């Protein structure tokens, strides 16, 4: 029996599906809008996180099924999966499923360059559609709904299997013996994830929930939520940790410094970062390029990319992180347990 739009929205609501990319906005509310296209966000905005690309590579049929459901709910005629061009395994898996499901006329892939923050909604919509979301606006303002690929997988499970959101994938990386991506129950303590990844390689390390750019410090007894995508274990002298331990006054000063650098960057004529004075539309040409593809976010990229690469002190080599294996590392204020309920989905993927 085919389901109507309201039936699907009710199933999505009853399953507790929310934006898995971090915002946590109720998905059934977002899908009540009527738009021209739906974009599946698989760009993985933050460095080090691997969840999106692994979900697309391992569960392409669920991602596409969720995208089709989102299109049916919103009345969208077009669906786009936006991901980075370097995600070769995910690209092959998605193209194969699009062919098998004969979705070529409805769904396409959009390949992004490898830059930060490609996964930001404002940047993503501009790259894919060429339309600029108004300041303080939403993708809806330009006829678009954006959903994370993990959200779409939850949507497929909710509509097709009546399955509530009780698990999610989390990348666990940093100073660990065996970093990887895990499928874990919502509510799993972070200490269990550290133990499942072989334990920390540093004493008195710090946990960061999320990526190195936007993540926050957490304790080992904090737990996985529906919006948790990554857990990093970093040593105390890592600039990522030091910045978060700094006083608010110091953080404000650092932020102002970054803004000043972006303002200087704005004056470089070969890299336009905004519409020229008097521009009438987003199609206005500036310096032979569309100004939106070199938006202010790319200016921020130039500042933070260097800072990020200098501060991570994390190096991927043959599926493991730099450092010596330890039996049982210490993280935060207590020793991690030696056993874990977390189930390994992919380990040493990168």
Bin the strand percentage. Answer: 15-25%
| Rg calc | 21 Å
CATH fold-level label of the largest domain: Rossmann fold
Q: What sequence of helices (H) and strands (E) makes up the elements?
A: HHEHHEHEHEHEEHEEEHHEEHEEEEE
Tertiary shape: globular
Please give the order of strands in the largest beta sheet: 8-7-9-5-6-16
Helical amount among residues, as a percent range? 25-40%
CATH superfamily of the largest domain: NADH-ubiquinone oxidoreductase 51kDa subunit
Average the pLDDT over all residues and give the rounded result. 80
Q: How many angstroms does the end-to-end distance come to?
A: 42 Å
Main beta-sheet annotation: 6 strands, mixed
Q: What class do helices, strands and sheet pairing give?
A: alpha/beta
Number of structural units classed as domains: 3
Task: Name the descriptors.
single chain; 350 residues; alpha/beta; Rossmann fold; Ubiquitin-like (UB roll); 3 domains; six-stranded mixed β-sheet; 19% strand; globular
Summarize the structure.
With 350 residues, this protein is of the alpha/beta class. The chain is built from eleven helices and 16 strands.
General description of the model:
- The chain has 350 residues and is of the alpha/beta class.
- It folds into 3 domains: 5-161, Rossmann fold (3-Layer(aba) Sandwich); 167-238 and 312-347, Ubiquitin-like (UB roll) (Roll); 244-310, no CATH class.
- Helix content is 35%, strand content 19%.
- The strands form 5 sheets. A 6-stranded mixed β-sheet has the order 8-7-9-5-6-16, sandwiched between helices. A 4-stranded parallel β-sheet has the order 3-2-1-4, sandwiched between helices. A two-stranded antiparallel sheet has the order 10-11.
- β7 and β8 (216-218) form a beta hairpin.
- α1 packs across α4 and α1 (5-14) packs across α7 (149-161).
- The longest helix has 19 residues, at 248-266.
- The termini are far apart.
- Residues 279-350 have low confidence and may be disordered.
């Amino acid at each position: 029996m085919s389901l109507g739009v309201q039936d699907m929205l009710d199933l999505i609501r009853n399953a507790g599906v929310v934006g898995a990319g971090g915002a946590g906005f109720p998905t059934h509310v977002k899908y009540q809008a009527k738009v021209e296209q739906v974009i599946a966000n698989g760009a993985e905005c933050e460095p080090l996180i691997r969840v999106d690309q692994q979900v697309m590579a391992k569960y392409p049929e669920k991602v596409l099924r969720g995208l089709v459901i989102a299109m049916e709910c919103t009345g969208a005629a077009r669906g786009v999966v936006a991901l980075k061009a370097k995600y070769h395994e995910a690209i092959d898996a998605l193209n194969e499923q699009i062919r098998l499901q004969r979705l070529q006329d409805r769904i396409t892939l959009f390949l992004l360059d490898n830059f930060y923050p490609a996964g930001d909604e404002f940047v993503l919509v501009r790259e894919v559609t060429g339309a600029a979301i108004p300041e303080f606006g939403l993708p809806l303002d330009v006829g678009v709904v954006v959903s994370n690929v993990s959200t779409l997988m939850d949507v497929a499970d909710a509509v097709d299997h009546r399955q509530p959101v009780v698990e999610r994938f989390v990348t666990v990386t940093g100073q660990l013996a065996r970093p990887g991506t895990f499928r874990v129950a919502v509510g799993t303590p972070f200490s269990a994830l550290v133990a499942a990844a072989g334990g920390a390689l540093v004493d008195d390390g710090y946990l960061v929930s999320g990526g190195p750019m936007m993540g926050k410090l957490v304790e080992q007894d904090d737990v996985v939520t529906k919006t948790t995508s990554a857990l990093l274990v970093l040593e105390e002298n890592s600039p990522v940790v030091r910045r978060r331990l700094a006083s608010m006054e110091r953080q404000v000063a650092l932020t102002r410094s970054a803004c000043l650098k972006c303002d200087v960057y704005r004056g470089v004529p070969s890299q336009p970062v905004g519409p020229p004075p008097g521009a009438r539309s987003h199609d206005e040409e500036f310096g032979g390029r569309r100004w939106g593809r070199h938006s202010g976010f790319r200016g921020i990229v130039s500042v933070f990319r260097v800072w990020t690469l200098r501060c991570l002190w994390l190096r991927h080599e043959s599926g493991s992180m730099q450092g010596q294996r330890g039996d049982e590392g210490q993280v935060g204020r207590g020793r991690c347990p030696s056993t874990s309920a977390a189930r390994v989905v992919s380990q040493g993927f990168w």
